[in-house]
Design a protein that fits this description.
Layout: H1 2-27, E1 29-33, H2 39-50, E2 54-58, H3 63-69, E3 80-83, E4 86-90, H4 94-103, E5 107-112, E6 130-136, E7 141-147, H5 152-159
Parallel strand pairs: 1-2, 4-5
Antiparallel strand pairs: 1-3, 3-4, 5-6, 6-7
Amino acid sequence: MKKLTYILLAGSLLVGALSSAAANATSTTVEVYKSATCKCCAKWVDHMRANGFTVNTHDVGNKEVRERAGISTTLGSCHTALVDGYAIEGHVPAQDIKRFLKERPRAIGLTAPGMPHGSPGMEGARSDPYDVLLINKQGDTTVYSRHLPSDQKESLMRLK
């Protein structure tokens, strides 16, 4: 009987912890600054919502907010998002953002410079490997994650 009680208690604690984690992800609000006419930005917003984020869009462009965040134009993309004190530039996958928010490094944020084919919002016939970069407080970058196409042989052929 004690073993059954222990199993039920452990299961209840696990369910509670998982529910709390899910609630935190869904309660995270992302403010996205983009062009009103950019379709890939709208697809990235859909990707973020599908991954549990609350997203508010501001169709005013992203140049000013990117500059205020301290992100150089060389690291730029078509939209900038602000979330929980960080800046997210471009088509960064939601999974990277979730990991980043959990780790909470001392950084400006993350960027997927340019508009990498195959990244969230940029899906299509072409899919290229790309890196998501961490931007530290000095504006320097390091590779935070690497994303490879699902069919690497086919994608490598496209790169040649």
